[in-house]
Amino acid sequence: MGSKPKVAFFDFACCEGCQLQIANLEEDVIGLANLVDVVEFREVLTGTAPEYDIAFIEGSITRKIDEERIIDIRNRSKLLVAFGQCAVSGGINRLKNNRESLDQVKKEVYGDSYNMPHLDTYATKGVDEVVKVDFHIPGCPIDKTEFLNVVKAIALGKAPSIPNYPVCIECKLKENECIFDLGGVCLGPLARAGCGAICPSNGVACDACRGTVDNPNKNAMHEILEKYNYTVDEIKRKINLFGVNPEAKK
Amino acid sequence: MSNNIKIDVHHITRVEGHGNISVDVKEGKINKVEWQVPEAPRFFEAMVIGRGYHEVATITSRICGICSIGHTFASLKATEAAMGIEISDLTRKLRELLLHGETLQSHILHVCYLVVPDLLKVNSVFPLIKTHTEVVLLVTKLHRLANELCEIIGGRTTHPIRARVGKFSMMPKKQELESLKKRLTESVGDLKALAEVVKSLAGGIPDFTRETEYLALTNDNEYAFYDGECKTNDINKPLHVDGYYDIVNEFVVPQSTAKYGKFNRESFMVGALARYNNNYKQLTPLSTSVAGMLGLKGPNYNPYMNNIAQVVECVFAVERSIEIIDELLNTELKVEKKEIRTKAGKGVGAVEVPRGILFHEYKYDDNGICTEANCVIPTNLNHNNIQKDFEKYVKENLSIGEKEMGFNLEMLVRAYDPCISCSTHFLNIEFK
């Protein structure tokens, strides 16, 4: 891209914690503002633009009207990037898909008013279940340095690189004590790295908030489960916390 | 000047989440004054059902990225109350410190990145990078410091990792605390400089008052954030948080589908100004003097002054953080071994988050599986008050013209620092 790319940010169903990571770049935001031209970003800026070189999408798609909105944004964008696990896989919002029925979900939250039309919701989708996504930035929340690197790569016309090896590798490099040895069940053997094994490094099991690697080594996982006396069900239960489907490639 | 006003702000900018403003005045007759919220509901209370007690805070933290630390604590406190789990003095101190970090982070972000552009009549913070470079750098420095506090104590700035049921999974290093203390002490000067900047712009704050009921936690020992009972200016004795249901009184208004809250008056306000009005006598000397410098005296009934109360709370957060760090430096910092025995029960947790009082309530079965949940979010509690402010403001200012009225109503919404994406059980507001 010759001149500064026109960039826009949009959010759908999410906590907006991933766009906060952009604010958390602090002084680097100033550098970023020099690299790109932010033309639309409702949370921080008043104004809109007709089209964008890069649209950054945060959040999952949970309603028909949101589906129409994301299709419209896609039609007006040269490149579209899904950032944060909600946009990538539906993230934590996908938990509601696991319940008996969406009517049940609505009743639990809204009681007698559950059937009002504006409360309508459908099974949570990641952005690429609705429109074409050019690049994904996983994580709950995203890693701000990874975000910066992805933007730089795209601005230079290159494909950004996201790690495709498991969290265990980063954890071992940090010489952390293994969570399994500490008595926990950890998704590190399957989970996509890039976070610096941040949870195990803070004494907590990995929940695979960045999804799994493309071809997770299930045999290794089985061996670990056998060694520490856990069942596959425990892993299956845990892995749906962030809407991750290990069979899907993301 | 014509007395026709038509304002339709679709998706107001520089707030978290989506909200609309709609005003219709014809020949001086007010036909419509509406604050509307079309945010996508997210159903958190249903998402936690069937999950284990140790996972619930991980999930409900994701209600809000800006106040994920506050949500984590309301959640942990509710779970601990349900199962009768006590926390140590050390855990409590670390939680208080982490909460002050979040308050500082959120208030700086809100006042400086989202409100100050209004006072300078620009569309965002971006043009200020060029025109007010020094100020922007001062702000990013303070914001960075707040975030680093959260990282050192919580393991991550957003969605804290170390704060677990009954304990912290990892301790900060003494060295980290010492360096943090040093930087916090130095930041007092930066905060004073920031307060001077805000003071120089304070002329842009509209002169408007509407006294309402102010709801916030209170406790005898200090200006309450982490713990306390529910206090308002309309009750004689604070009420236990377990009775929150009868305080927030969520109800559906006949002419709209919005769930509103009210207690002793037609609406109530939560957040920095409510905390200030209820508890300002407990502020530290420096935060009191900054309040004085910025023209804030308790009680204050101008909702726009919520932003000034936020600046005052930034000073308080820094002062209290330094005190807590001093206490921690004299404590042995060791990860606690905590055996948790699950048992059936129900519990409520309440904390003051940047935007006001927050309640979580859970019910667990014998195996520690969540069977019921309710989360009451401060932004929800304020919607009724925003609507009532709108009605009074429009009535009193019909002659100021469409443009200024639209601008000032947007600014009023921003003054509340609404975080609409926190919409756990948000009813869509459809005004007729």
Overall description:
The complex is a heterodimer of chains A (250) and B (432). The model of chain A has no long low-confidence stretch (mean pLDDT 89). Chain A has ten helices and five strands, in the order E-H-H-E-E-H-E-H-H-E-H-H-H-H-H. Chain A has 250 residues and is α/β, with parallel strands linked by helices. Chain A folds into two domains: 150 residues, NADH:ubiquinone oxidoreductase-like, 20kDa subunit (Rossmann fold), CATH 3.40.50; 73 residues, no CATH class. In chain A, strand 3, helix 3 and strand 4 form a beta-alpha-beta unit. The two termini of chain A are 26 Å apart. Chain A is globular. Chain A has a five-stranded parallel sheet, sandwiched between helices. With 432 residues, chain B is of the alpha+beta class. Chain B has one domain: Orthogonal Bundle (Cytochrome-c3 Hydrogenase, chain B). Chain B has 13 helices and 13 strands. In chain B, a hairpin with a 5-residue loop joins strand 12 and strand 13. Chain B is globular and about 70 Å long. The C terminus of chain B is likely disordered. Chains A and B meet through helix 1, helix 2, helix 5 and helix 8 of A and helix 1, helix 2, helix 4 and helix 6 of B.
Distance between the termini of chain A: 26 Å
Strand content of chain B: 15-25%
Q: How many extended strands of chain A?
A: 5
CA radius of gyration of chain A: 19 Å
By CATH, the topology of the largest domain in chain A is: Rossmann fold
> Gap between N and C termini of chain B, in Å?
28 Å
Instruction: Please state the structural category of chain B.
Output: alpha+beta
What is the strand arrangement across the widest sheet of chain B? 1-2-3
Q: Which runs of chain A of at least 5 residues are low in confidence (pLDDT < 50)?
A: none
Q: What number of domains of chain A?
A: 2
Low-confidence stretches of chain B: 423-432
- The quaternary structure here is heterodimer
Give the tally of β-strands of chain B.
13
Q: Output the CATH class name of chain B.
A: Mainly Alpha
Radius of gyration of chain B: 21 Å
Please name the fourth-level CATH homologous superfamily of the largest domain in chain A.
NADH:ubiquinone oxidoreductase-like, 20kDa subunit
